[in-house]
Design goal:
The complex is a heterodimer.
Chain A: H1 4-18, H2 25-34, H3 53-65, H4 77-87, H5 90-102, E1 107-110, E2 126-130, E3 133-144, E4 151-157, E5 168-174, E6 180-185, E7 194-204, E8 209-210, H6 216-229, H7 246-259, H8 265-268, H9 275-282, H10 288-316, H11 322-348, H12 364-371, H13 382-393
Parallel strand pairs in A: 1-4
Antiparallel strand pairs in A: 2-3, 3-7, 4-5, 5-8, 6-7
Helix pairs in contact in A: 1-3, 4-5, 4-6, 9-11, 10-11, 11-13
Chain B: H1 5-21, H2 24-31, H3 39-49, H4 67-79, H5 86-100, H6 103-115, E1 120-123, E2 137-140, E3 143-152, E4 159-166, E5 169-176, E6 182-187, E7 196-205, E8 207-212, H7 214-249, E9 251-252, E10 255-256, H8 261-290, H9 297-318, H10 331-343, H11 348-362
Parallel strand pairs in B: 1-4
Antiparallel strand pairs in B: 2-3, 3-7, 4-5, 5-8, 6-7, 9-10
Classes of the chains: A alpha+beta, B alpha+beta.
Amino acid sequence: MPSREEIIEEAGAWLEENLDPNLSLVEWRSRLVDGGWGSPRWPKEYWGRGYTTEETNVVTSLFIRKGAVPAASAGSRNLAAETILACGTDDQKKRFLRGILTGEDFWCQLFSEPGSGSDLAGLTTKAEFKDGKWVINGQKVWNTSAHHADWGILVARTNWDVPKHQGISYFLINMHQPGVEVRPLRQMNDHASFNEVFLTDAIVEPENLVGAEGEGWAVAKTTLSYERGGFGTVSDIECEVEKKGRLYDEYDEEMREANEPYVWYPQRQGRVDLAVPRAQATGTIKDGAVRQEVARLISMKRGAELAARAAKAKVRSGSNEIVSAGSIGKLASSFVARQGAKVHTMISGADSLLKGEDSAEQGVIAEILVSVPAISIAGGTDEIQKNIISERVLGMPKEMRADTGPFRDIKRN
Amino acid sequence: MELTEDQIQFGEVVERFMADKSPPTVVRKLMATEEGYDPAVWKQLCEEVGLAGTHIPEEYGGFGFSDVELAIAAAAMGKHLFCGPFFSSAVMAGCAILEGGTDENKEALLPGIAAGTTIATLVLDSLDKVEEVGQKVTADGDVLSGQVPIVIDAHIADTLIVITADGNGYALFSIDKGADGVSVRLRESIDETRKTCEVTFTNAKANRIGSLDIVGLNRLWDRLVTFLTNEMIGGAKHLLETTVEFTKMRFQFGRPIGSFQGLKHRCADLLMELELAKASAEYAALCYVKGTGEPYVASMAKNLAGDAYTNIAIAGVQLRGGLGFTWEEDTHLWFKRAKGSEVLLGTPHYHRERMMTIIEEAS
């Protein structure tokens, strides 16, 4: 076990030797990954150092201070990497992990379908083994960054004669082939942050099946656990060097491009921060009904933050209430966002209809009203959160199921 | 709120006492009496647990714990609907003296309150709005006149602490309940677990014991609100738990009613509402201790808790169906405490308005 000082010394010396702002992004990340600093938490045989989370955080903090651009993380590549690392073959790890970290390969996630959203295990995209290859047919939806992805993590049904969770397999699919068609999906708020992906006789090589045939649900749950848990972050650390040069320009461009589809995300949270300033600017702060709703909004928002903080403290103290804390927090954010939309409607009145540069907050108010519905759907609907809370926290009985037995016989879309 | 080992143990002691001494059967018995409490249990609580001195500094005979301990005790009392003069005497009167009393009067009055041998109460002539305090009782020198419609536990109090307007601030008086010119009339209330009286002063000679400025009065109000809010959280949490348990036991249409999504989702919503209120109430207590936080934390917590407890109480009756509306079933005891707590020391509506006033003053 290296000490904190030893890690800083070794990583510092390596940075001294290798960090060069004139490199291209890929050139730098190749050095980073081959040096074992791209993901130090990973095992030594796969470009890591076998560090603990704490040791990794030491490296991350140092790299932030020294202005070292981190390994690639945009899109769904982290989910792919963690899943391959946990469930993939040695050959898959060797072929895919390096390209994920260097950013040479962009990944997307192909899970949700038009006919299976909350009920992911009810998916109907079909994978059939023909002439030594998997042939995929079906449609996927809500795929982030699929339009510039090289590879996708895919779940598809390989057996229709067993209960639904048992007939699913997990694949790594090459997105550059004729059978894969990606189309942007226009949302009700006029942004297109996601895609839909049509798979028509798309091919997956047999060596790109992850886990055994029919055991894909367990692999998918590994992916989803990383999606929900997120990644440890190190914040509040200032960079000590001036970020100038080709490396930083390319990195800024990468970040800008990655964040562009999500510029409306603050609006879906209800923009609580704008409530009092807008009420003051419009004079509606004198309206007793507006005052009531603004105070309610601020109370709910702050209450939700405090509840989340209390839940985190509970987790730190070793309680296993993490799932419930997440679901209650998710439900609370919907509750807050809806109240935000209500408040902004009261404050702005007819003006809240108008979009464009000359409208209220340059269209932000209008965008709140048509973006808030997303928060109650994305990442698990409010209804699913309520099922989780009532069943796992309150211990209430499950609903009777209508989807047992062979998948073939289950009523579906 | 992250608690220390000592605070956790303190909570367990109070919880054990309350579970043992304040089961619903006892609550029902006491609420039917005029006194509304059991002097023997009160004595035991003060002598064995020392609870009345929780927040009173050691120099005045208390333990000098913080409002975090007070909040912990509040939640246990709210859970078990404890019938006794803790809120009126130790908290309302005790905190008023601590906030505005002179050192000499603190020394004279607080040790008895901390020991529980003196029962005091605070005559707040508005339990609705802090801005309206000091209008119904007037002081001519140290002679009090006026009528206050709701005073908690005045019928069992030895000493009344009174706040009246005094120039730009407020004067603090104490007066024996038995003094000339003081009359106390027990009132009928929907919440019989907390007795309320009308108090009338007719040229009653009192002792001036101190002063409060407007900041001090608001700080006192916030402190009382924070205690009451944590008490509400204890009750709300318990009532939601018993309601959920009921839905698991109650079978209709061949299945437990708790398996119907309509009920499950309603309970999940209530738990979320409770969690926001609970975190806010605990935070308000911590902010009082540290002197930090947003200036409106107490009002924020009270408006969230007021709505949450009332919504849980409504569901508590509703989910039990006809049974929930009977006198024999215990739910109405919590329902009435919920309603009583919602309206005392400011409704949720009032506290939201107060928040906005504070926010506007700050910006």
